[in-house]
Automatic annotation (TrEMBL):
Subcellular location: Membrane
Gene Ontology CC, one term: membrane
Lineage of producing organism: Eukaryota, Viridiplantae, Streptophyta, Embryophyta, Tracheophyta
Protein name: Uncharacterized protein
Protein keywords: Glycoprotein, Glycosyltransferase, Membrane, Transferase
Signal peptide start-end: none
Organism: Gossypium harknessii
One GO MF term: glucuronosyltransferase activity
Amino acid sequence: MASSKMENKCVCPVLLSSLVCAFVFVTSLNMGLVSSVHKFNSIFPIFSAHQRMSEYAESKIELGTPPPPGPTLPRFAYLVSGSKGDLEKLWRTLHALYHPRNEYVVHLDLEAPPEERLALASRIDNHTVFNKVGNVYMISKANMVTYRGPTMVANTLHACAVLLKRNKDWDWFINLSASDYPLVTQDDLVYTFSALNRNLNFIEHTSNLGWKANKRAMPLIVDPGLYMSTKSDIYWATPRRTLPTAFKLFTGSAWTVLSRPFVEFCVWGWDNLPRTLLMYYTNFVSSPEGYFQTVVCNVPEFAKTVVNHDLHYISWDNPPKQHP
């Protein structure tokens, strides 16, 4: 009996001590004295095994190699040019062509009255989107442009140089007039060109000059727009000249879609051919229909990039007139 009483006396303090320890431990958890769940898990790791496996799997997914980026979408650089009375048509065409990814140069030639040029500049400056994106630029110092004369080529090259200086992050240059209007949206155009080689040049061309050899290549003309401040037609000079032998002449459409590498070649001219041909076409009738064709087809590097189409549709009168 004595031993039994002694055992009961020993067991009671042990049980009481265990209950007190358990109570203190639980209380410390509730009071934040055991501050980290990680410490609790280190004491009872069996409860967090599934959680650690889940975290490990997620980390493996997050640290995986990202997929390679897709090809960048193409960008276009436009020249939209007009003359006297073309303000509203140019403004309409610019809005129809506009896309924030593209670059735009607009030009009203020197024949347009100052009021029209100032009105165009004011519209661009006060346009909310154009101002925010900053991708529409007006050539404020207007050029004199003569129809069928080399000043049209000079004006196009001027716009190309401006576009290259402002932003080289574009793929194709497209020259248009204020009378043009897009037949597809810019999104459709981007989608179509996204699968194409960025070096392609869309230039309608032929080496079969036909009647143009006698009527355009052999006569000598002078463009008054090169040295006069008022507009007048080209005039013929004498004597006539023979066809060139240093290069082969090509002719085609004045409307083109040019790749940026080819535009850089024409503007910077690390080969002398673009400059030589620019001087030759100074006295050529309708030089805009032959300059780019002759340059691209006489340089082997670029001749293989030409697609014989200008991507331009013209609705001619029947019978055809000088202008559609």
